[in-house]
Amino acid sequence: MNHFEYKNGHLTAEDVRLGDIAAEIGTPFYAYSTATLSRHYQIFADALRGMNALVCFAVKANSNIAVIRSLARLGAGADVVSGGELTRALKAGVPAAKIIFSGVGKTDEELSLALSIGIKQINVESVPELEAISRIASANGVVAPVALRINPDIDAGTHAKITTGTLENKFGIEWTLAHEVYSRASQMPGIEVKGLAVHIGSQLHDLEPFRKAYERMGDLVAMILKDGLNIETLDLGGGFGIPYGDETAPVPNVEEYAQIVRETLGNLGPGLDIEYIFEPGRMIAGNAGVLVSSVIYVKEGATRNFVIVDAAMNDLIRPTLYGAYHEIVPVDEPGEGVDVIEADVVGPICETGDIFAKAKSMPRPRPGDLLAVRTAGAYGAVQSSTYNTRPLVAEVLVNGDKFHVIRPRLGVEEIISRESIAPWQLTD
Ligand code: LLP
User: Fold this and answer.
1) Which residue of 148, 250, 384, 387 is most buried, as measured by CB atoms within 10 A?
2) Which CATH number is 4-31+286-416 given?
3) Which DSSP letter does residue 381 get?
């Protein structure tokens, strides 16, 4: 469920008409619903009731500080993958004690930053990274709380570009080596091994790969405990799939997911007090955002029609990058008797891949009409760019009948002002 509904023929975000936002700030823009963000966070957190659980929003899905803050206020932590995301999470008000740092290529500078703020946990993805952390922590006289991210070699059955848990992927320490690395890590200076982490991919529809990965993790926990070593945290990653509107199979259920966690990892031994960490991104932000654009032209041909809008692949790259489906709807409901055309909805960028929908049946739009691309709150604005020197897309947060521009459009002059002509070119 989300809070983008038609009210009196107008698509609204909560109580704000998207058309009113467009009139004030122009298009294209992303609009996010605070109520939907809260609801999704709450559904996830509620499903984990009874467990010692920390939900760390995967900031990569939507890193606007206002979005992070909406979730932090509900108690969410943050899962970050760069010094930049770490800085955002802190700025948004997430306490360092609720921030997890993931990623395969953390630099010395990023690791030093993480240690200096007293981060909750660094998820380590390789032995060289472990050595780097040990060196940096020792040099700074601190102890680094780490978890080993394991690669369980489980195929998540999702898009090839966002599958992370097989041995072909760069992520994590091979599960067959993890046991040995864990005991080695527990001897290293400056390191305190807290536990294990796993993340097998994104937009998972089938819950079975989660079960298999978590079972594998349970086996590892047993081996580690047998060695007399300690486990305090299990980070179970993100990846929970959401509906985009083109599914042929039912979307996964959070309660069933939580049940799998309880069954596989809920009871690992007497006296163990494990904290379970989760890193959902898409599940929280995906349906909490839409991308609103205006129709520039309707180009009707002998063989094909094109609806050309003012948003493009630089604003939302998912359709062209992953072949992802996003539902597109008119912001103002068309009146009775409007004819329907079949058209490709495309942007102005000079690439054939700049396409949001192919052969879509839609009420014939007119130039100036607004269209909303749904389910764009995750991996939308964060992946936007200024390709073709197009202004960087704006973002708006709605709360009830209020809205606020949480990232103004970055204009052409501002983009170009960061560049300069080399001194030797000035004399030409
Ligand atoms: N934790 C780790 C370590 C991750 O790598 C990811 C996502 C997540 C958590 C959050 O996964 P989620 O709950 O959002 O599925 N740009 C792609 C998705 C990339 C996902 C990368 N990792 C897309 O637009 O589909």
Assistant:
1) 148
2) 2.40.37.10
3) G
